[in-house]
Amino acid sequence: MGSCEIKGEAEMLKAIFLPFISTSHLIPVVDMARLFATHGVDVTIITTPANASVFQSSIDRDSSRGRPIRTHVVKFPQVPGLPEGVETINADTPPLLTMKISEGLSILQGQYQELFRVMKPDFIVTDMFYPWSADAAAELGIPRLVYVGACYFSHCAMNCVEQFAPHAKVDSDGESFELPGLPHKLEMTRSQLPDWLRAPKPYTYLKKMIKESEKKSYGSLFKSFYEFEGAYEEHYKRVMGTKSWSIGPVSLWVNEDELDKAGRGHAKEGEGKRTDEELMRWLDSKKENCVLYVSFGSMNKFPTAQLVEIAHALEDCGHDFIWVVRKNDDDGDRGFLEEFEKRVQESNNGYLIWGWAPQLAILDHPATGAVVTHCGMNTVFESVIAGLPLVAWPIFSEQFFNEKLVVDVLKIGVSVGAKEWRNLNDFGSETVKREEIRKAVVLVMGGEECVEMRKRVKVLSDEAKKAIQSGGTSHNNLKELIEELKSVKLQKGI
């Protein structure tokens, strides 16, 4: 019996997961770490104290279930001008502090590399924003898998723009151009492209480093699933010339029970006094598919003028709603929203959440009927799993590409009509008017077009659930990858 145990320990793979320090990247990488641990890989997640607090309750639950997973916390460096405990980049992080956090990450690089050497993992999984880790893994002679954020489609579209520069062939920012070489015929405008794709910026060079580091890595991991964007998964592999595995939707796979769903993403970030229990009671009082969920993710804020338009559109549309609001520093904004909140509380038509929301629990609730989203892929996947159509309101990053996937390829949502890409912490000049918002909401909440969208998204929801079951595409991908990594370990030991 003892020899069997020793053999089992020898065969067990040891992995280090290194997530990035923004919530939208942190949560899916942690979900992937939990997924590998569920399949018998011994997992250590390395992060800093403030970032660990976002997900530690999930790790503790997994550990209590007997899964081989833990968190190794590294103290964030003291950077002059950076307040203690500020270690995460999100919508509330000013540009100056973002730079100082990046400075702290550069200091941590050496510590991370030393931990790789000391812990002796069989492989590492690191976020795309740590391109240096490809060389670190090569030095140790172990595979590096890179977590690539967003989805296959958006990376294919970005590569198309880099390769063919179709935006350079139009005369104005508002003129449409086709994205050549993709499986579908799709059009965009120059104003919808990220600024780093339009002209060289520091981020342009970082993206080039990320792409080069992926080509030096063992392969890439996506939180997607084949039935969602299989044509683009295949296209991506051809274009990149590297291995890649879709192992999603990861949020569905690892968040099994109500505690997992409610605790995902740090439940104590918000500033409001209303509880999750009160929110669920409010949802319980509503009819099926009658509530609109409005959320723009952890990285986005709006100026007061846009918040006013959203508020009026929600009041005018005639549907109950939950709106996740992120405050800005405008006192007028705060006063207007407090009045609005008081009004909709009295009418019982709306529910405002300040800061963090238990999103998985809200989307899963039968009263929730559709989602207004910034087209961040975490929310898109979670909405698809719940079988909910979308109002697409892209803002920055790769989100305008994601909108094309949702609206034009999958046809599971409608566009709110946003035309201007903007940088993080930049409000831009565009204000989407209440009439446009209302029109999009009415489309996804009722009518013939809505019925067809619901049918399509329900099919994808069913496919998502099949993908992670035994014999499903994502289940097979993960199983094959783990077996492949075991073979690499065995060959190394010969």
Automatic annotation (TrEMBL):
Keywords tagged on the record: Glycosyltransferase, Transferase
Name of the encoding gene: Vigan.08G023500
UniProt cross-references to PROSITE patterns, sorted A to Z: UDPGT
EC code(s) of this entry: 2.4.1.-
Molecular-function GO terms, alphabetical: UDP-glucosyltransferase activity
Top-level taxon of the source organism: Eukaryota
Official protein name in the record: Glycosyltransferase
SUPFAM superfamilies in the cross-refs: UDP-Glycosyltransferase/glycogen phosphorylase
Coiled-coil stretches: none
